[in-house]
Design a protein that fits this description.
Helix content is 37%, strand content 9%. By secondary structure, the chain is mainly α. It has two domains: 71 residues, no CATH class; 35 residues, no CATH class. Strands 1-2 form a two-stranded parallel ribbon. The longest helix is centred in the first third of the chain and has 40 residues. 7% of the residues are buried.
């Protein structure tokens, strides 16, 4: 019987040694994050394109577009893409932030997040149903 390779003990055939596996995981994670950023950028660009196309077709219209903060905070994401597609469009960013004390606003901490920043109570149960339908009501 050939000597047992202890550097690969418990690893399936063809699986890289542990030190290589760690490097592969790090590379995979970096690739995952990069792809996620590309997907996010594509989403933001497509939303901005849809908004600016609507505004071109409807002069004088106002649009309220509600999205998660990552799409608009610090005027990046969608607002950035809107400036690319239609530079003359005015945007207004309202960012909502969870805060331990929502009654105390620290302008240094929240500077640049948006034109307006609304603090909400971090202690709220974020798992409650957020629609008008009862659970299981279906419509």
């Amino acid at each position: 019987m050939p000597p047992r390779d202890t550097t690969r003990a418990g690893m399936p055939p063809g699986h890289p040694p542990a030190e290589t596996a760690g490097q592969e995981r790090a590379t995979h994670m970096a690739s995952f994050l990069e792809n996620g950023l590309h997907a996010q950028s594509l989403w933001d660009a497509s939303m901005a394109y849809s908004l600016t196309t609507f505004l071109e077709a409807n002069p004088g219209a106002l649009v309220l577009h509600m999205v998660g903060g990552f799409h608009v905070e610090n005027f990046t994401g969608i607002p950035e893409a809107i400036r690319h597609y239609r530079p003359e469009t005015r945007t207004l960013v309202v960012a909502m932030e969870l805060a331990d004390d929502f009654r105390t606003f620290d302008s240094q901490e929240h500077a640049g997040r948006g034109d307006f920043v609304i603090l909400t109570d971090k202690a709220l149960d974020l798992g409650y149903a957020r629609n008008c339908l009862e659970e299981g009501g279906g419509g």
